[in-house]
User: What shape does this take?
Amino acid sequence: MSRLNRFRIVGSLLLGVLLLMGASDNSSRIDRLGHQMMCMCSCSQILMECNHVGCTYSDTMRNELNAGVDAGKSDSEVLAMFVEKYGTTVLAAPTHSGFDRVAWLLPYIALIVGLGGVAFVVRAWHKRRVPATVAATSGLSTADLSRLREQARKETDL
Assistant: This one.
């Protein structure tokens, strides 16, 4: 085999590998973008996992996703196209900008406030003074208190 033939074979193999890598890139990109969006048929499922028989939304949205990727749009442009058409509810997770940051921060803030509230209540209960004896605060003598306890035991005996 001549050197020129080897070069042609290696070159065509490399070209084939590069072409196949590009093909799988689009399918993985479509899959990744489809998992960042929700199906709009109110099934509350990810777009690529919507399994309703005859769901017209998922088929239409998948076709739009394929068209956007095939048109050479970037990921953010494709997502912006879907947000423009379907609203922000199409996104599976809130964005990290604007008012959507509240959705990311609120659970942590609630946890911190809750732990602070629990600590405050525990500290307040711990500092609360318990009277030394009930007799001292009620004005009863110990003899009267003993008599009342005995009467309570007799009345509650089965």
Remarks:
- The chain has a mean pLDDT of 82.
